[in-house]
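Sat 14:20. Reprocessing the chain from the morning session after the first attempt stalled halfway. Input below, unchanged.
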Amino acid sequence: MTGRLGNGSGAQILTGHWSRLLEPSLVLAVLLSALLHALWNSFVKVGQDRLVSVAVICATGGVLSAPVALLMPLPGLAGFGFALLSVTTHVAYYFCLVNAYRFGDLSRVYPLARGLAPPLVAIGAALVAGERLDVHEVLGVALVSFGIASLVVGARGGAERRGLWFAAATGATIGIYTIIDGLGGRSVPRALSYIAWLNMFEGAAVLIAARARRGPAVWSAMRVALPKGVVAGVMATVGYGIVIYAMSRGAMAHVSALRETSVVIAALIGTIVLGEPGFATRVAAATVVAAGVVVLNS
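Finished this time. Tokens:
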């Protein structure tokens, strides 16, 4: 039985009963989100300045969300609290992501980072939101873990190992902000209001961080990155908006798991489009990860 949105107490937000299986339309929407996510990550990977690319992407999300926020009711104290907590975690996520792509390949970093998220979300949702795992969900977690382990084996050199550590840290931050945003979307009458304010806060925070890191020169660099960055920003904004909305309607672990089927897409982009090595092993490992997340959602 699906929990009611927005009018419950804090305890109900944390432990309410949420639909185990997603509606078919939401399944298709989350799969679209997976495709969009893999695509915008490939933009970041190939960008000449990944920090600038991320700044343009987040700024685009903030600009797109401002009109939506004006049309929606305010998310309230709980919604604002979850959004600010999520933004803090997102800034850490982008730091880890930029460095993971600095040292590692898309076809290895992306499946590792994204594959770690569903098991972490499943465990976290069980601890804080009462979403218990059954036998087949535990099997899904095991498959994901095996796929991730096969991606890690064979890493050579200090730079590649640093890329894997940053990828693992990226996965941890993904798990944390996914749970925060799942609860945030459930805490408000309209999930779209939470999504819009989150995007605006995140855009401002990442711009401040980029300015602090690079100084005034960051603005001219962002202008150069605008064309591709805006396209990627639209993808990122629409894709994650779909995810938050879906988590306001169904179990967080299932939404997160379904979205991470994007690991196969990213592995194909990395090895075929970007010419990264290890096509057979990386695509096979990513497929195992994807199989695990599908089992989690079944």
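The radius of gyration is 18 Å.
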